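To: structure subgroup
Subject: Chain for Friday's discussion

All,

I'm putting the inputs and outputs inline so they're searchable in the archive.
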Amino acid sequence: MHEPVIATALLIALTGFCTVHCVLVVVGRGCHDRRLEPAEIVMGLAMVGMMAPAFDPLSPVLWAALLTASVVWPTLLLAGRLGRHPRTAFAGTWSHYPHHVLSAAAMAALVLCVAPAHQHAGGGAAHGGVVSTVPEWALLALAAYFLGYAVRGAGSLLLRPATGARLTRAGGPALLTSSGLVSARRTVMAMGMFYMLLAMG
């Protein structure tokens, strides 16, 4: 990947913060849906590992297995929800599940495609390995999707009513698990996916 070092470092920091937030949500209380958080932790760590392969201790095969599990888990949850409540299966907190399934599946494919190029180049640029394995139009289509998701998420955050005072009085756990912060985290991760895919395309 040929992206600037400063931009990559900033993206790694933001993605790392998002992953830490996922962990805090899992161990905390009050989140409207914590079942998806372990899968999002895997997603965040995989993004950091892809952007900083020199500091990634896991093999690509293990990452692909973890990401595949993070695809299967929400798919099973969503299938169960669809069987019990077909009319509201994709409403409310469940509306993010299809997006996460697509994100984790894309990351699993990228890990397997980028890994041979990284090994071949000694951890250097993986652009040629990706293009030779994944069609450029597929990378650009995925990048466009994640850009649209990020723009939509940013727009919804800007239009969200101000609730900061209530959250501050509620205390730290309520602030950490607020729907606004969860949405902001997912928006940042979508921006990270867009950035990586655009650099590879």
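Points worth raising on Friday:
The chain is about 75% helix and 0% strand.
The mean pLDDT is 77.

D.
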